[in-house]
Automatic annotation (TrEMBL):
Membrane topology classification: Multi-pass membrane protein
Transmembrane segment boundaries: 42-58, 65-83, 123-149
Subcellular location: Endomembrane system
Protein name: C-5 sterol desaturase
Length: 276
């Protein structure tokens, strides 16, 4: 919160016409989403901890917590975070949770606090760590480190950093691309702490043109409840309109922009269009 206030003040004394800065309603919505996520996550984590603990007791493997294993745990967590984050962009049901974080048309430290209230599926991606013998508390520690690291990269006040840092780590420049809504920037730079997985798996894009933040179809509300649930409501509408069970499932499992192809009637079904 202190860093957010300092960044806000910096815009007053050093404004930049190329940066969006802060807007009162947007910032209030981000802070409300952050506070709400703390409350909801406390509930969601109870069954997750229970599942992790159950599976940890079943596996015969054990990874000790030592000075040299902790960095390996953090690296493993960042690898699985990359795939979790990528999955939350390409599977619409997961996107309905993650879209909250992308719903602001501003990009500042308060945006980092705009977190979802329905984080009920991401835990699945980290099951390999539990089954490999990493203690659930160690996984939680890695999650916290990963999340805290990503706070400072939500800013326009920092340009590009030295090339070795930009090559290895997720930076403000890389993450601005991730939050942009232009076509060439969509679904890029999924990394948490490291950016190398994006480079290896073909999802990296360097910052070139000025990012335009937000969604391809922006929402116009600052109501926290609507921000948290608007994509679920859109999915429900699409599923209700679907005419086949296959399309209903695809509305859940395909990407956010997927829509069924228009169906044309055959000549037999439409006698007026049949040849004379």
């Amino acid at each position: 919160m202190l860093l957010t206030v300092l960044e806000l003040v910096s815009y007053r004394f050093h404004p930049d016409e190329d940066e969006r800065g802060y807007a009162a309603k947007d910032t209030a919505a981000s802070l409300s989403m952050g506070l709400g996520s703390l409350l909801f996550d406390a509930g969601w984590k109870i069954p997750i901890v229970a599942i992790y603990s159950f599976l940890y007791e079943l596996t015969p493997l054990r990874v000790p917590v030592l000075w040299w294993t902790v960095p390996l745990m953090l690296l493993a967590y960042d690898f699985f975070y990359y795939w979790s984050h990528r999955g939350h962009h390409v599977i619409r049901l997961l996107w309905a949770c993650h879209v909250v974080h992308h719903s602001s048309r501003h990009y500042n430290l308060s945006t980092a606090l705009r977190q979802p209230w329905t984080s009920v599926t991401g835990w699945v991606f980290y099951l390999p760590m539990i089954l490999a013998g990493v203690h659930p508390a160690a996984v939680a520690f890695c999650s916290s480190v990963n999340l805290v690291y990503q706070f400072w990269i939500h800013t326009e006040r920092i340009g590009t950093l030295p090339r070795p840092v930009e090559y290895l780590f997720n930076t403000p420049s890389h993450h601005r691309v991730h939050h942009a809504s232009q076509g060439g920037y969509l679904d890029r730079n999924f990394g948490g702490i490291l950016i190398v997985f994006d480079r290896w798996f073909g999802s990296f894009a360097a910052e070139a043109e000025q990012p335009v933040y937000g969604l391809t179809k922006d929402i116009t509300t600052y109501n926290p409840l609507k921000v948290a649930t608007h994509e679920y409501a859109a999915i429900a509408r699409d599923v209700a309109r679907a005419t086949t069970w296959g399309d209903r499932l695809r509305h859940l499992a395909k990407g956010p922009g997927w829509q069924p192809a228009p169906r044309t009637e055959s000549p037999a079904a439409n006698p007026e269009s049949a040849p004379a």
